Amino acid sequence: MATSDQLKALLQSYTEGDESQFFAVAMQIAAHEARIGHGELAKQLRNIIDDAKTRQKRGRFTKAPTPIFQPQGELSALVTASFPKLRLPDMTIDSGVSLRLLRIIEELRQITKLRSHGLSPRRKFLLLGPPGTGKTMTASALAGELGLPLLVARMDGIITKYMGETSAKLRMIFEALKHNRGVYLFDEFDSIGTTRASGNDVGEMRRILNSFLQFMDEDNSESLILSATNHPGILDHALFRRFDDVIEYALPDKESGIRLLQNRLASYKKIEVNWEKLADAASNISHADITRACDDAIKDMIIHDRNGITQKDILQMITERKILDKKHYNQNKQGLTTPK
Questions:
Q1: Residue 130: which residues within 8 A CB-CB, separation 6 or more?
Q2: What is the pLDDT of residues 219-258, one digit of tens each?
Q3: pLDDT class of 335 with cuts at 50, 70, 90
Q4: Residue 269 and residue 258: Cα distance in Å, rounded?
């Protein structure tokens, strides 16, 4: 049976003539029925919705789509909302990480069954790893798989110099996730999760971290909370206990590099491409950089009206990416070691 919130949302979207919202809520109801074992009813609901959407595409409805949830008021300055279509198979990540994400998705899809046995699905995750290895994409994939909005916390809007204001803004986000189920991502989490024993720490940052720990302990919503960082070594140890799972990401190995290259270039003509050699050349750079190198080669081919992409083209773009990464690494290293 649909929840009271779903029924209210369904009726409200109908009275407002908002077909897009009506369909979205109806799909949530169908998914709920499937989770509690009403497979035939869920199938019938999905068929009705699909038929209505087909008629919509033929011009029966003209109103622009409206998302179910968009941050309003002060909250709109603290989080940005999107509705990802990404799915887990779209990602090229380590098989171990992929299995763990699949397990998370299954637990959340079977939330009613688990709770009937006095158990709760995992909802709070800490994502660790170098930039460009799939942490932010994971948040999008989980949102896409579960049909939930993705809400990304804007750290520039949350963290302020005024005492108590940052904690108040964090409280506002945690209140929102109670009432609006979604995937909430705190990216660059080390900006608020730095260890309380840090020599550079100030009292206000300790209070912010303590507030976050308290909010995590009090949270019993159905939303997902993801915190991602490139610098796990500076996180306060008390944070790790607050998460249901810690997932570590790494730079792609040779096999993952080959899969990523092949997936990205599958639609384009290649000339004498040795995938293993390309993967070797792309060692020690991230998934994101490999993807950008492929895209750069594709764009170069299009701009110069060439018929295909050669191995030389791709190697050149990979080399440029590695040089750029090394330059940024040296700049960051210098910035960290230069006395202030």
A1: 230, 249, 250, 251, 286
A2: 999 999 999 998 878 787 888 888 999 999 989 888 888 8
A3: very low
A4: 16
Of the three residues 195, 224, 248, the one that is the final residue of a domain is 248
Q: Are residues 165 and 217 in the same domain?
A: yes
Q: How far is CA 11 from CA 19, 24, 26, 37, in A?
A: 11, 12, 11, 25
Residues 206 and 301 in one domain: no
Angle CA 206–158–213, to nearest 5: 40
Element (H, E) at 271: strand 270-271
User: How many domains are contained in the chain?
Assistant: 3
Q: What are phi and psi of 146, to 5 degrees?
A: -95, 0
Find the DSSP H helices in the chain: 4-15, 19-35, 39-55, 95-109, 111-116, 135-146, 155-158, 165-179, 190-193, 203-218, 237-242, 254-265, 275-281, 287-303, 311-337
> Structural domain of residue 138, as residue ranges?
73-248
User: Reduced to 3 states, what is the DSSP secondary structure of residue 269?
Assistant: coil
Facing residues of 153 across strands?
A: 79
In a domain, 38, yes or no: yes
Q: Tell me, yes or no, whether 228 lies in a domain.
A: yes
Structure tokens at 134: 């799939």
* Per-residue tokens: 67: 């998302």
